[in-house]
Amino acid sequence: MSLEIPDRVLAAAANRPETVGKEVHLRGWIHRTRSSGGILFLLVKDASGQIQVTARKDLLGAEAFARAEKALVESAVEVEGTVHADPRAPGGQEVRARRVEVVHAAEVFPIFSGQTEEFLLDHRHLSIRSAEMVATFRVKAEVMRAAREYLDQSGYWEMTPPILTGNAAEGGAEAFVLDYFGTPAYLSQTAQLYLEALLFPLEKVYAFTPSFRAEKSRTPRHLTEFTHLEAELAWADLEDNLRLQEGLVAHIAQRVAEARAADLRVLGRDPKDLRAIQAPFPRMRYEEAIRILAEKGFPITFGSDLGTAEERALTQDRAGPLFVTHFPKAVKAFYMLESPHDPRTVECADLLAPEGYGEIIGGSCRETDLERLTQRLTATGARPEDYAWYLDLRRYGSVPHAGFGLGIERVVRWIARREHIRDTTPFPRTPSRVTP
Ligand code: ATP
Ligand code: MG
Fold first, then answer.
1. 49 strand-pairing partners
2. Under CATH, domain 121-424 is a member of which superfamily?
């Protein structure tokens, strides 16, 4: 038996001028309730939107009316009635009910306005019902759908690399260690090494995986668990890599502007801002970036990494993303290819989101020479034996290749204009929070 009712109408569909005069059967939750003089006013919401329901004691009967009148906010209800035009109702239509059934009478809902951020985070399982959260999660779903769509259409294969791994790929200090039947293992920080292995038979690969970083940085752009979209492409140089990234990000922006305009408005983002995101994106070399930053008064010299403040200074007045390329070797990962033009630097780029949001992608060409790769790895303090399988990839048909990692929550933070990255994900994991 199915619990679905064949003639159920969603609130958003009911709340349209075309449905005036029609009979509807609604299912949803009470968003607001008040009663006066034998008339009950319910604002009923479902996943699609909301509509006002009015119910009269003389039509419902005293008993059913009393049950509906007692039902608190967030109670689940079923309503049958007729749609009428009413300029006082939100959206312009209301349902005049002949039946209101309380499917579940909620207890007093603990979330209301003016509560502290900590309280709301402790009650995240309930606070995620807010209109802004719901709009953000729909935007995030659209971002991921658009990314898959772009990569699939560009001939990339989606892979499923492991999350449990014996290698701490980005440096041991920031990896979560766990006990794997008596041997230490790590939660993946990146799928890159595995994607590089898959690259040789498939040439174009990508993966969506959770990545974990045990970094205690309490910044508005770091989570300890985030959604990582990574891609690797064979026979590619830095320019090929940047073209893929800008195509991908522009496609995401266009799709979200088109498909989620109403959600974007709830979040205070004008869809026009996203329609303006078009490839190609400007490129700036690291040396140029530090020159600009020094002029702005930052105490920065060749060899310094760019932090949140520096990235903000470079992007706060921009309307579109910016690539910063050719960082010093010393601040980047061991597998990045040394630049043929300047051996102090590597063939890499960070993509910075506009309006001060900062890094959303880190990418590079990969070192393909076994000896140089081994040297660089050893210099990080790692033992080459631990990376034997990865080094093997440079023994059997190694080709020039490149790739990148994009933080989905970082992209959503920019697109949905969220102050803090934790509000781009339903159950954020930060150094001080692992529940609910
Ligand atoms: P940052 O310098 O901002 O810490 P990173 O250089 O460590 O970033 P990468 O290792 O290049 O980042 O990871 C690729 C992408 O993954 C980043 O561009 C970013 O979008 C995302 N990312 C990295 N760390 C985090 C994190 N702690 N929380 C959320 N997203 C992250
Ligand atoms: Mg980092």
1. 46
2. Bira Bifunctional Protein; Domain 2 (3.30.930.10)
What pLDDT digit, counting tens, does each position of 223-241 carry?
999 999 999 999 999 999 9
DSSP 115: -
Q: Ligand 1 atom closest to Cα of 351? A: 18
Q: How close is the Cα of 351 to the center of ligand 1, in Å?
A: 11
Q: How far is the CA of 403 from the centre of ligand 2 (A)?
A: 17
Nearest CA to ligand 1 atom 26: 222
Q: What's this model's pTM, rounded to 2 decimal places?
A: 0.96
What percent of the chain is predicted at pLDDT more than 70?
99
Give the alpha-carbon dihedral of 245, 251, 252, 253, to 10 degrees.
Answer: 110
Ligand 1, from 217, 226, 364, 366: best to mutate by most atoms within 8 Å of Cβ? 226
Query: Which of 138-147, 160-169, 304-313 bottoms out in mean pLDDT, i.e. has the lowest?
Result: 160-169
Question: pLDDT value at position 170?
Answer: 59
Which CATH fold topology does 4-104 show?
OB fold (Dihydrolipoamide Acetyltransferase, E2P) (2.40.50)
| C-beta pairs of 36-45 under 8 Å, 24+ apart in sequence | 38/65, 40/65, 40/68, 40/69, 40/100, 42/68, 42/77, 42/79, 42/100, 43/90, 44/11, 44/77, 44/79, 44/95, 45/11
Which atom number of ligand 1 is nearest to the Cα of residue 361? 18
Please name the helix (run of DSSP H) or strand (run of DSSP E) that holds residue 347, with its range, or none.
none
User: What's the rounded Cα separation, in Å, for the pair 381 and 280?
Assistant: 38
Please state, in angstroms and rounded to a whole number, the distance separating the CA atoms of residues 279 and 154: 16
pLDDT of residue 49 exceeding 90: yes
Ligand 1 within 6 A of CB of 226: yes
d(CA 271, CA 258): 8
CA of 325 to the centre of ligand 2 (A): 17
Where in the chain is CATH 3.30.930.10? 121-424
Strand partners of residue 99: 80
Residue 416 CA to ligand 1 centre (angstroms): 18
Distance 191 CA to ligand 2 centre (A): 15
Residues of the chain with CATH 2.40.50.140: 4-104
Banded pLDDT at 172 (limits 50, 70, 90): low
Q: Is the CB of 310 under 6 A from ligand 1?
A: no
Closest of 174, 19, 5, 165 to residue 86, by C-alpha: 19
Q: How confident is the model at residue 115 (pLDDT cuts 50, 70, 90)?
A: very high
